[in-house]
Design brief:
The complex is a heterodimer of chains A (367) and B (506). Chain A is an alpha/beta fold and 367 residues long. Chain A contains 15 helices and twelve strands. Chain B has 506 residues and is an alpha/beta fold. The longest helix of chain B has 17 residues. The chains are: A alpha/beta (367), B alpha/beta (506). The interface between A and B is large, with 49 and 46 residues.
């Protein structure tokens, strides 16, 4: 079993990270003056380490029953590479980071990080407006040759990745908060796979790690570290996005925010960022210009959709690009319920509006 | 020495005739009741003896045996007290057997000889096959609903014995109240705004479609639901008697006239057990809330908070209009044809629900919505989101139509439905719909799109067509148009689909 000379240092680190409550701090203790392989041998033979006896005991039991080679094969067969800070291919932007990750697990190819990078982030609980904007930004930035970064969460993250994939040019990169074999949220399974195929999915956490609550703030710091520009599409007053913004500020990354309606709870955070002096991102061109690149010529503002049917136009106009409920629509359009219902059904069919619970929202129709 | 008196006992909501046989013989003085009496029935011994003595009559100092036949049926309650007392007096010779020959007795005795009201007097009196029936004074009104029997009401044992001994007169029959007292029901005119919800309420009343309100606390879901029974037409005589029987048997209060003429409104708390809601019980089978709501409205507020097992029990009554309860002690059928109105919050925080505004995680929102899912939700034809009314709605302008105006239209639609051979449009079969309303091309497209988008099941499509029929009837239009179907679709929101459409990658 201990033909350790054949296994790279990364394999031993991956094995060490499988041990109970092994975090960056304990890792440093264990690795003090040892190579990862030596550290592993030390644990197996119960050499004195600067940790509690019970933990050492648990580690020893676990380590003795772990087949490091099989574990390493599990990584390689899944196409997962392990990057230590000294490994070739470790993202240059993270070297010199105030809190760099000691190790990164990568599924896919991180080559896209050689391109300029933009993180598109925002709330999971977004409005259709936010999702549409994130999609369009993702698509247009990727089409300009910019690597789109996000966190593969529901809402804005997913929309940004979906847009970036749709452009089919610059590969997207996702930074996630769970082990790479633990897809979270499971509803994003298809998206996760596509991102890993086209670009890369990155995690600081070893295989099998659950998406624990405190993983996400840590994930956000990596996201901020990897990005040249962070764009917040929609965010409430507090939340993960605001945390990422703070991390970005700590790393001198440019933060941009997408203006939203002052009445939308999902835009409170972004509007506050604008008030605090963030640059507004009203189009992908604004972001490209912020990167110091040549702005794309084509404006990406939604082309106004002309609707043949007058009553349909009336319904769409009454939305004012906000979420509205049926009662409000009845009041605003002044149409009778029958005509309104028919109009809503056909607008829904052509995907010019979507319905979420009682709320109807206009959409640009990409999602 | 032997007397035989007609009486009845209650099984579920149906009376069963009971013959009370009393035998008095020489032997050690004693008093035994046999024939499967339950505890309250066996306690009749002490009540009867005390009542007889308090009425100034002598108690036989001999061996008294009471048999309640048929002995296979469990006898429950104190409704047999009066019959036992009369039996003892007849067997002892205080009352002439001939004078009670064609007479049945229902009533509970107090120790002082007063005759107390008994739950279920209507079904009990109905089960007694005699031409004259003696009932407690307080139950006279409901008992008088039985045609072609003479109902005698008494207030205490002494008076009754006097009459039977030929020394007194029956107290006059209670005056039939001509106009059933119109209980004031809350009026729809009090509701401000809520255009869509009012519309849905009207359709539910007109077509007998079950209704779900989804909305934040304080939006007025309960207020709206309480106004539904006021929109329904008064019960027809047959149903009214059926409803009165159930309420009588369940020991619920009856109106002054005895007859429940208006559709009942029942709103059980969400802590209700399955037995309380559906009916049952271990020894005595009692009707549940669904039966108490028979002919009227069953309102389940905070439907998501009811235990799923309890809600699942609603499926049989919703499907068949009755509940079949089987226990070791016997089985009973309770009528339970009601209009279900349920209300629920859109998510655990219940408050915002607005895109970007709700603080519930999407997973917990999904879980919450899932509690209402499945077969039960499929039976709710109308599902409407209710928003808090705006200040403008509350303070500005006029209230909407009054209940009376809406009830007129509802009544008309109901009679149209009768013309089709069903009680209400919700009962229309697919075949009947195909005959009366063949779908036009546009309608087919509309439904096809909804089905392919996963918004509609096959059953759902049929329900949508029924609702569309009701909407057309309300507008007094013969043919169902795509507009009617589109309305029916709009009024069939899918609470489980919260966020389904914004899961960007499907």
């Amino acid at each position: 079993m201990f033909d350790d000379g054949l296994l790279p240092a990364e394999a031993w680190v991956a094995a060490l990270l499988q041990l109970d409550s092994m975090g960056p701090a304990k890792m440093r203790v264990v690795l003090a003056g040892r190579t990862p392989a030596e550290a592993w041998a030390a644990i197996v033979s119960d050499e004195p380490l600067k940790t509690s006896a019970t933990l050492r005991q648990r580690w020893r039991v676990k380590a003795r029953s772990t087949d490091v080679k099989a574990l390493w094969q599990q990584h390689t067969s899944h196409g997962i590479s392990v990057l230590l800070t000294e490994s070739v291919g470790f993202p240059a932007r993270l070297i010199g980071d105030p809190e760099p990750p000691d190790v990164l697990f990568v599924r896919g190819d991180l080559g896209a990080l050689r391109l300029p990078t933009v993180a598109i982030i925002g709330t999971r609980n977004c409005t259709q407006y936010g999702a549409d904007v994130a999609y369009e930004f993702g698509r247009d930035l990727a089409a300009t040759g910019i690597c789109v970064l996000s966190g593969l969460a529901l809402g804005i993250d997913a929309a940004a990745h979906a847009g970036a994939l749709a452009a089919n040019l610059a590969p997207p990169v996702a930074v996630v908060g769970s082990g790479l074999n633990r897809i979270y949220p499971s509803r994003n399974r298809a998206l996760w796979t596509s991102v890993a195929q086209a670009g890369a999915v990155v995690s600081e956490y070893p295989l099998g790690s659950a998406p624990l609550r405190w993983h996400f703030p840590a994930r956000n710091r990596i996201l901020a570290g990897l990005a040249d520009v962070v764009v917040v599409v929609e965010s409430g007053e507090e939340g993960g996005s605001m945390h990422t913004v703070a991390e970005a500020a700590a790393r001198d990354r440019t933060v941009m925010a997408v203006p939203g309606p002052i009445r939308s709870p999902a835009s409170v955070g972004t509007n506050q960022l604008l008030a605090d002096g963030c640059a507004p991102a009203a189009s992908a061109g604004d972001i490209v210009a912020m990167l110091g690149l040549c702005p794309i010529s084509e404006a990406t503002r939604p082309t106004p959709i002309t609707v043949a049917d007058k009553s349909h136009q009336r319904i769409l106009d009454s939305f004012c690009w906000q979420s509205v409920d049926l009662n409000t629509l009845v009041k605003r359009t002044g149409m009778d319920f029958s005509a309104l219902s028919i109009g809503l059904e056909s607008l829904r069919q052509t995907r010019q509006i979507v319905q979420r619970g009682q709320w109807f929202e206009r959409t640009t129709g990409h999602l | 020495m032997l007397a035989r008196i007609s009486a009845a006992t209650l099984v579920g909501v149906v009376g069963h005739p009971v013959a009370v046989e009393v035998h008095i013989s020489n032997g050690l003085p004693g008093f035994t009741v046999v024939g499967l009496p339950d505890v309250s029935c066996r306690e009749a011994r002490d009540r009867v003896r005390a009542a007889v003595l308090s009425s100034g009559l002598a108690w036989p100092l001999r061996r008294v045996t009471v048999n309640l036949a048929p002995s296979g049926v469990r006898k429950e309650g104190a409704g047999l007290d009066l019959a036992i007392a009369i039996g003892v007096l007849v067997a002892e010779g205080d009352i002439d057997a001939g004078s009670v020959e064609n007479m049945g007795f229902v009533g509970e005795l107090g120790l002082d000889g007063t005759i107390r009201p008994v739950p279920g007097t209507l079904p009990l009196a109905d089960a007694v096959h005699t031409s004259e029936i003696v009932v407690p004074n307080a139950n006279a009104a409901e008992a008088s609903l039985i045609q072609d029997r003479t109902i005698r009401s008494v207030s205490n044992l002494r008076d009754l014995v006097d009459v039977l001994q030929g020394e007194g007169e029956w107290s006059p029959a209670p005056e039939a109240i001509e106009e059933p007292v119109r209980v004031t029901e809350p009026d729809l005119a009090d509701v401000r705004g809520q255009h869509v919800a009012r519309h849905a309420l009207e359709i539910a009343a007109a077509g007998g479609h079950h209704l779900l309100f989804i909305g934040p606390p304080g939006a007025g879901k309960t207020m709206l639901a309480k106004r539904l029974s006021g929109l329904l037409p008064s019960l027809d005589v047959e149903t009214a008697i059926e409803v009165t029987r159930i309420h009588s048997a369940a020991g619920l209060g009856l109106p002054a006239g005895g007859l429940i003429a208006r559709p009942p409104f029942r709103a059980p708390h969400h802590g209700a057990s399955a037995v309380a809601l559906i009916g049952g019980g271990s020894s005595v089978l009692r009707p549940g809330e669904v039966s108490a709501a028979h002919g009227g409205v069953l309102f389940l507020d905070e439907m998501g908070e009811f235990s799923p097992a309890v809600l699942d029990g609603l499926r049989q009554p919703l499907e068949e209009g009755l509940v079949r309860v089987s226990r070791a002690s016997g089985s009973a059928e309770f009528p339970a044809r009601f209009l279900l109105v349920a209300a629920t919050n859109p998510c655990p925080c219940g408050d915002l629900g607005r895109p970007g505004g709700c603080f519930c995680s999407s997973a917990s929102r999904f879980r919450y919505a899932r509690r209402l899912s499945g077969p039960l939700l499929d039976r709710l034809d109308l599902r409407v989101h209710v928003q808090r009314p705006s200040g403008e709605d509350l303070f500005g302008g006029r209230g909407g139509e009054s209940s009376a105006e809406v009830a007129d239209r509802v009544g008309r639609v109901r009679s149209t439905a009768h013309g089709r051979g069903v009680r209400c449009n919700a009962e229309l079969s697919a075949k009947q719909l195909d005959e009366t309303d063949p779908l036009c091309v546009d309608s087919v497209t509309l439904l096809e799109v909804a089905i392919s988008a996963g918004r509609l099941s096959a059953r759902g499509m049929h329900r949508v067509r029924c609702v569309a029929r009701t909407i057309a009837d309300l507008e007094e239009v013969d043919i169902v148009t795509p507009g009617h179907l589109a309305q029916a679709l709009q009024l069939r929101a899918d609470p489980v689909a919260v966020n389904r459409e914004v899961d960007h990658v499907r």
